[in-house]
Amino acid sequence: MKKAILVALDYKDEDDFAMSLSELKGLCKACDIEYTKVIIQSITPTKPYYMGKGKVNEVKRMIDDEEMVIVGEELTPLQVRNLTEELGLEVTDRTDLILRIFASRAKTKEAKLQVEIARLNYELPRLAGMHEGIYSQQGGSGFRGAGETQLEIDRRRIHHQIATAKKELARLKKERQIQRQRRMRNQEEVVCLVGYTNSGKSSLMNLYTQKKVSAQDMLFATLETSTRRIRLADKKYILLSDTVGFISHLPHHLIEAFLSTLEEVKEADLILMVIDCSAKYVQKQIDVTLDTLQQLGVNHTPILYVYNKEDLPHDDLLVTRDPHVFISVKNETHIEEMEEEILRLLAQDEERVAMVIPYNEGEVYNTLKQRVHIIEESFPEDGIHLIVEVTSYYKNKYAKYIKMPEN
């Protein structure tokens, strides 16, 4: 396990600074890095070193057996180079830690491509500061183009890798779109779990599924979007999607790279924002999640605020957002109330109708059992009598079976 010194910027906002520092420590833990000291940077970052020259010397004096220095902001290539030269050990930043975690957790081809694109975009502007000695002019015979530098060659190589990865990602995105279109044809409603990293999204998903998704007490335990067809208590089926957790100052490289995965959120019929109500900075975490959704272009999708971990101590003055429910995934409490709210919000486009299905059309009955909410059913001689809640799509599709009310 590597040891590191952390350098954090004091934003002059006590909660924001404390939350950012807590996240930085969590990122170190997820990267298997032990932080030994924390140094606070209280002035505006400087262009050459990020921190003031006096602070650089302070860090240098504090180095014992640490192998790296980690800064809680994204550093410029110049700052990385200057700090590395001054301190004589590895210097990295918050964005690099997040990229390391994502790279280690990526399992599917799509996730690996997304991480690769994000990493290459992060490295591209930093090439000039890497292996500076080899970036000398390489003109003359035997080289590709008179006067072309190694830096230009490497930049062109990275641009090519990004283009290749994006092309493959676009192919996978098309496959995902076809799956979404198939779901739309089947009128399967999609509910997406979003929220701050480590808020309990995957644990909630695991309540409903036999095929478990990763749910660990660490940042970014879930990286891939997992979608499962689940059955709620009233026998209604929905598609539930788990997504990568959000975090403050999520690097632009990652948001851009993961857009194809996060499009599940854009296409959802309902968003469940899972919130750790025991978190110290819960209000700021909600704001970060809403800001990230806005960056993704999610502006009009209904949101159910699910305050998880109600069994743990939390602020009695917590200001909730509506519509909301309090639950404990761990203790499986108030799950039925949450399902009722899900159904209520999904039913805004639904209408209650009576239907009669002939016995020789059992396939229609089986489809309705899987796709709509059946409130009542009986089996007299003339057919299967149903009271159902259906969307306008199913009302039109099965209009001939609808029994009009008698005057």
Automatic annotation (TrEMBL):
<feature type="binding site">
    <location>
        <begin position="195"/>
        <end position="202"/>
    </location>
    <ligand>
        <name>GTP</name>
    </ligand>
</feature>
<dbReference type="InterPro" id="IPR016496">
    <property type="entry name" value="GTPase_HflX"/>
</dbReference>
<dbReference type="InterPro" id="IPR030394">
    <property type="entry name" value="G_HFLX_dom"/>
</dbReference>
<dbReference type="InterPro" id="IPR042108">
    <property type="entry name" value="GTPase_HflX_N_sf"/>
</dbReference>
<dbReference type="GO" id="GO:0003924">
    <property type="term" value="F:GTPase activity"/>
</dbReference>
<feature type="domain" description="Hflx-type G">
    <location>
        <begin position="189"/>
        <end position="350"/>
    </location>
</feature>
<dbReference type="GO" id="GO:0046872">
    <property type="term" value="F:metal ion binding"/>
</dbReference>
<dbReference type="InterPro" id="IPR027417">
    <property type="entry name" value="P-loop_NTPase"/>
</dbReference>
<dbReference type="InterPro" id="IPR006073">
    <property type="entry name" value="GTP-bd"/>
</dbReference>
<comment type="function">
    <text>GTPase that associates with the 50S ribosomal subunit and may have a role during protein synthesis or ribosome biogenesis.</text>
</comment>
<keyword id="KW-0175">Coiled coil</keyword>
<dbReference type="InterPro" id="IPR025121">
    <property type="entry name" value="GTPase_HflX_N"/>
</dbReference>
<dbReference type="Pfam" id="PF01926">
    <property type="entry name" value="MMR_HSR1"/>
</dbReference>
<feature type="binding site">
    <location>
        <position position="202"/>
    </location>
    <ligand>
        <name>Mg(2+)</name>
    </ligand>
</feature>
<comment type="subunit">
    <text>Monomer. Associates with the 50S ribosomal subunit.</text>
</comment>
<dbReference type="Pfam" id="PF13167">
    <property type="entry name" value="GTP-bdg_N"/>
</dbReference>
<comment type="similarity">
    <text>Belongs to the TRAFAC class OBG-HflX-like GTPase superfamily. HflX GTPase family.</text>
</comment>
<dbReference type="GO" id="GO:0005737">
    <property type="term" value="C:cytoplasm"/>
</dbReference>
<feature type="binding site">
    <location>
        <begin position="242"/>
        <end position="245"/>
    </location>
    <ligand>
        <name>GTP</name>
    </ligand>
</feature>
<keyword id="KW-0479">Metal-binding</keyword>
<feature type="binding site">
    <location>
        <position position="222"/>
    </location>
    <ligand>
        <name>Mg(2+)</name>
    </ligand>
</feature>
<keyword id="KW-0963">Cytoplasm</keyword>
<keyword id="KW-0460">Magnesium</keyword>
<protein>
    <recommendedName>
        <fullName>GTPase HflX</fullName>
    </recommendedName>
</protein>
<feature type="binding site">
    <location>
        <begin position="328"/>
        <end position="330"/>
    </location>
    <ligand>
        <name>GTP</name>
    </ligand>
</feature>
<dbReference type="GO" id="GO:0043022">
    <property type="term" value="F:ribosome binding"/>
</dbReference>
<feature type="coiled-coil region">
    <location>
        <begin position="155"/>
        <end position="189"/>
    </location>
</feature>
<keyword id="KW-0342">GTP-binding</keyword>
<feature type="binding site">
    <location>
        <begin position="308"/>
        <end position="311"/>
    </location>
    <ligand>
        <name>GTP</name>
    </ligand>
</feature>
<dbReference type="Pfam" id="PF16360">
    <property type="entry name" value="GTP-bdg_M"/>
</dbReference>
<dbReference type="GO" id="GO:0005525">
    <property type="term" value="F:GTP binding"/>
</dbReference>
<dbReference type="InterPro" id="IPR032305">
    <property type="entry name" value="GTP-bd_M"/>
</dbReference>
<keyword id="KW-0547">Nucleotide-binding</keyword>
